[in-house]
Automatic annotation (TrEMBL):
EC number: 3.6.5.n1
Membrane topology: Peripheral membrane protein
Native source organism of the sequence: Lichenicoccus roseus
The keyword Repeat is annotated on this UniProt entry: no
Protein name: Elongation factor 4
Subcellular location as annotated: Cell membrane
Ranges of residues in domain Tr-type G: 4-186
Length: 597
């Protein structure tokens, strides 16, 4: 395809503003699929993505559009994830395109994620076409939203396109804008091959599939390619495009987006952002890559049944095949046995991986409290990164500790601003900026990430009745007065429950966990003491009184089926119990203990 007939674009939007619905409409209009194949949103193809209505992995599809100018264009659509945890995946999708459709729900207006995405698109030098969606809704206020886009986002919105992705209204308007307003890609077909490695994943039949954007040269079937970062060479077995099903071709030229498959064993050998070149006629320079993703939240995952350890290892390995941003390493806990310390891009990423392990791999797991990555400066002059509270050195060995901060943007209707500011202040936040967009406030805060992983999203949603939108970016490290709080059950430390907090919050959180455990640990035949301590100093304590009677005693001689039910229930509960000395702690106690209120 000549470059002048190619358009590469992403769709960026705040979650729920209609990105996937629009993508489906574009695919349908361009005739990629039958009505029946369209019944489910095509691009969100993982179960969890569909259920939660979010996109995790960027997907791509090649469309063929006969435009009003009489020419048929190739439109490559790269879907982007809409959640803040996956901002990194957004940036690499954008790197493969020349333009973006900025979808804004005309009944909601600009939200935090709209801004975050649009700034990334501007950084990627994209031409941006604003699209006002959900124009069919009575609450739609396209004129106001137009103004908002100009004022807040700072891009012209006069020729924003009004559509309804749901009813299909003016989808042609979007397609025409792509053709007339986005620049075609540039590149030289005769130059040495330079292709950007955008993404890779594992396919059970084909092995590793690599998503590429060719910048210069041609990427041909059967040719020998070289990864410029490490010099590894592979023979290309298949080249093709997603339309949206995989369609093999002979080659991909400049400006084209497609896949290759080259008998590569693991995605770990495919560095996202790497440049692929021809081994016989290599390019002299790699393309500008993009920053690697680093996990910012860590937690321990332990099998409830110790026999599942091998299965856990295999399952984590399989997940990692498709998700290079997910990290894991072996960990041993005195309380929980053998497990893995796992690193994630954020809390949602953590939740998704945990859910997949439970659902797809049938694993029963205990997860420890999420921790951020601290920097410890020891008195002996050495420095280390710490992402497991259990590994925190003794206080006497520590010179200072630094913690990661974020810069958060929160957009919220005026009437909920008060409680939102209170929440940020309670979490040690520092206000950077506060401005108004009509009746909506936009607050910019610096916050310690440590305070955000403790249920900040949930609190924000609840104090704003769900109206606040939130986005953040990492914003450096700062020294802080942090302590490790240990939780002891009958004087035995439960390493999995220890956590790091700012000294000012230590007592409140310690007390809250002890109080929760008191309610969650079933009474036993003896008294149980629950304590929170910093070093040797106890800062909170609770006592669970002893149990006097056997639980099943009252069932003896009674209704036999009721008794069996009770025993079954206990058996079910057993699986989810962990033994601490003489004390059994149900898994629910761990999970609940990690939530704060
Ligand atoms: P995404 O999170 O940006 O991918 O949003 P979705 O495409 O999943 O859409 C979120 C919700 O908005 C879904 O319930 C859609 O049916 C609905 N929706 C999308 N576009 C429109 C539209 O044009 N009009 C109306 N009324 N609803 C829409
Ligand atoms: Mg979606």
């Amino acid at each position: 395809t000549p470059l002048s007939l190619i358009r590469n674009f992403s769709i960026i939007a705040h979650i729920d503003h209609g990105k996937s619905t629009l993508a489906d409409r574009l695919i349908q209009t361009c005739g990629g699929l039958t009505e029946r194949e369209m019944t489910n949103q095509v691009l969100d193809n993982m179960d969890i993505e569909r259920e939660r209505g979010i996109t995790i992995k960027a997907q791509t599809v090649r469309l063929s559009y006969p435009a009003k100018d009489g020419k048929t264009y190739v439109l490559n659509l790269m879907d982007t994830p809409g959640h803040v945890d996956f901002a990194y995946e957004v940036s690499r999708s954008l790197a493969a395109c020349e333009g973006s459709l900025l979808v804004v729900d005309a009944s909601q207006g600009v939200e935090a994620q709209t801004l975050a995405n649009v700034y990334q698109a501007i950084d990627a030098h994209h031409e941006i076409v604003p699209v006002l969606n959900k124009i069919d809704l009575p609450a739609a206020e396209p004129e106001q939203v137009r103004q908002q886009i100009e004022e807040v986002v700072g891009i012209p919105a006069d020729d924003a396109i009004e559509i309804s992705a749901k009813t299909g209204l003016n989808i042609i308007g979007v397609l025409e804008a792509l053709v007339t307003r986005l620049p075609p890609p540039v590149g030289d077909a005769d130059a040495p091959l330079q292709a950007l490695l955008v993404d890779s994943w594992y396919d059970a039949y084909l092995g590793v599939i690599i998503l590429v954007r060719v910048k210069n040269g041609r990427l041909k079937r059967h040719s020998k390619i070289r990864m410029m970062s490490n010099g590894a060479t592979h023979t290309v077995e298949q080249v093709g495009v997603f339309s949206p099903a995989m369609r093999p071709l002979d080659d991909l030229g400049p400006g084209e987006i497609g896949y290759i498959n080259a008998a590569i064993k693991t995605v770990a050998d495919c560095n996202i952002g790497d440049t692929i070149t021809d081994d016989r006629r290599p390019a002299s320079q790699a393309l500008p890559g993009f920053k690697a993703s680093i996990p910012v939240v860590w937690c321990g995952l332990f099998p409830i049944d110790a026999d599942d350890f091998e299965k856990l290892r295999e399952s984590l390995g399989k997940l990692r095949l498709n998700d290079a941003s997910f990290h894991f390493e072996a960990e041993t806990s005195a309380a929980l046995g053998f497990g893995y310390r796992c690193g994630f891009l954020g809390l949602l990423h953590l939740e998704i991986i945990q859910e997949r392990l439970t659902r797809e791999f049938n694993l029963d797991l205990i997860a420890t409290a999420p921790s951020v990555v601290y920097r410890i400066h020891r008195t002996n002059g050495t420095e280390e990164e710490l992402h497991n509270p259990a590994d925190m050195p003794d206080g006497s060995l520590i010179e200072s500790i630094e913690e990661p901060w974020i810069r958060a943007t929160i957009m919220v209707p005026d009437e909920y601003l008060g409680p939102v500011l209170t929440l940020c202040n309670d979490r040690r936040g520092r206000q950077v900026d506060l401005t108004y967009v009509g009746t909506r406030a936009m607050a910019v805060y610096r916050l310690p990430l440590n305070e955000v992983v403790f249920d900040f999203y949930d609190r924000l949603k609840s104090v704003s009745r769900g109206y606040a939108s939130f986005d953040y970016a990492m914003d450096g490290y700062e020294e802080s007065d942090l302590v490790r709080i240990s939780i002891l059950v009958n004087l035995e430390p439960v390493d999995a429950l220890s956590f790091i907090a700012h000294r000012s919050a230590a007592e409140t959180r310690g007390r809250s966990i002890c109080g929760k455990l008191k309610d969650l640990i079933p009474r036993q035949l003896f008294k149980i003491a629950i304590q929170a301590a910093i070093g040797g100093r106890v800062i909170a304590r609770e006592t669970i009184g002893a149990l006097s009677k056997d639980v099943t005693a009252k069932c003896y001689g009674g209704d036999i089926s009721r008794k069996r039910k009770l025993l079954d229930k206990q058996k079910e509960g057993k699986k989810r119990m962990r033994q601490f000395g003489k004390v059994e702690i149900p898994q629910t106690a761990f999970l609940a203990a990690l939530k704060m209120d």
